[in-house]
Amino acid sequence: MQKLSVTIITLNEEQNILDALESVKWADEIVVVDSGSTDKTVEICKEYTDKVFYNPWPGYMAQKNLAIDKASHTWILSIDADERVTPLLASEIQEALKEPKADAYAVPRHVFYVDRWIDHSGWYPDYKIRLFRRDKAEWGGGNLHETIVVNGDVKYLKGDLLHYTFRDLAHHVNTLNNFTSVAAREYAETGKRFRLTDMLFRPFFMFFKSYILKQGFRDGLPGVIISVTAGYHVFVKYAKLWELSRTQRRDG
Question: Are the C-beta atoms of 148 and 67 separated by less than 8 Å?
Answer without folding.
Answer: no
